[in-house]
Amino acid sequence: FHRGLKRKPMALIKKLRKAVIDLFLKFHFV
């Protein structure tokens, strides 16, 4: 349980970072 809790934030951070990069690229090329 503790290991799963520790691994979740990393996936969340990866998703967040990917979303931020996608947004940045969209605004950069518009």
Q: Characteristics of this structure?
A:
mainly alpha; 30 residues; 1 helix
What is the secondary structure topology, with strand pairs?
Layout: H1 2-29
**Number of DSSP helices?**
1
* Assembly form of the protein: single chain
- Distance N terminus to C terminus? 44 Å
The total of beta strands comes to: 0
Domain tally = 1
Percent in strands: under 5%
Outline the structure in words.
By secondary structure, the chain is an all-alpha fold. The chain has one helix at residues 2-29. It has one domain (1-29). The mean pLDDT is 82. The protein is built from one helix and no strands. Helix content is 93%, strand content 0%.
Task: Summarize the model shown.
The mean pLDDT is 82. By secondary structure, this protein is mainly alpha-helical. It has one helix spanning 2-29.
